[in-house]
UniProtKB/TrEMBL annotation:
This is Adenosylcobinamide hydrolase. InterPro entries: AdoCbi_amidolase, CbiZ. Keywords: Hydrolase. Pfam families: CbiZ. Signal peptide: none annotated. It comes from Rhodoblastus acidophilus (Rhodopseudomonas acidophila). The keyword Zinc does not apply. The keyword Hydrolase applies. GO terms for molecular function: hydrolase activity.
């Protein structure tokens, strides 16, 4: 998704899918903010990893965080920020958006078997297909702008889920009970102090996240005959 007359450059990070891992690598460490199984909150990382798991991997007596750390260590990714999902990670989606020279890129996997509606709570399934999202912006953000950018990405993800649910759904889900989302930005340069809906960076984030999540949700709906 681009502004008229603007061309999106090459992806700001490399990513490769070799199940059970989907790995995104930045050209240099990035400042991140979000919630993830490993490195939640503010962090500085070079790699972001999705681990695909099955029912046989996680029993009731398994410590999920310890399991994830062990699997990443085996793969040489012990320092990575990490997500875990039962969604087929080959079905990942990448979209970019450029607005007034600021670029945003989104890489996500979308599973909705663990769907929830905000303000309500259900017993989660034994293994959750969830929405795990990485968003990268091309310019450094202040801590406050990172928080604001995270809120924009959540809005875009939720709007995409709502817009792709069947019209017959009386109360469509707004996400899943185990969603994870992380914003990443360069560590150097003059930081932007705002990233709201009225800003170029906010528009770019919203566009990239909405398009990537919509593609993933439509694919999920088609795969499981929802619609």
């Amino acid at each position: 998704m681009t502004d008229v007359g603007e061309t999106v450059e090459a992806a700001p990070f490399d990513y490769a899918c070799a199940p059970p891992l989907l790995i995104a690598r930045f050209p240099a460490p990035r400042r991140t903010l979000g919630w993830s199984m490993l490195h939640p909150g503010f962090a500085t990382v070079r790699d972001v990893v999705w681990l695909e798991v099955r029912n046989s991997d996680l029993g009731l007596d398994v410590d999920a965080h310890a399991f994830l750390r062990a699997r990443l260590a085996q793969a040489g990714q012990g320092d990575a920020l990490a997500f875990m999902t039962s969604r087929d990670i080959r079905r990942h989606h990448f979209r970019q958006s450029r607005v007034e020279g600021i670029e945003a890129a989104c890489l996500t996997t979308v599973g909705l078997s663990n769907g929830e509606r905000v303000g309500a709570r259900k017993q989660p399934p034994a293994l959750a297909g969830t929405i795990n999202t990485l968003v990268h912006v091309s310019q450094r953000l202040s801590d406050g702008a990172l928080v604001e950018a995270l809120s924009i990405a959540v809005q875009a993800r939720t709007a995409a889920i709502l817009d792709t649910r069947p019209a017959s759904a009386e109360k469509p889900v707004t996400g899943t009970g185990t969603d994870c989302l992380v914003i990443a930005a360069p560590c150097n340069g003059t930081p932007l102090c705002c990233a709201g809906l009225h800003t170029a960076v906010g528009e770019a984030i919203g566009g990239a996240v909405y398009e990537a999540t919509s593609a993933g949700a439509r694919e999920w709906n088609a795969e499981f005959g929802i619609g």
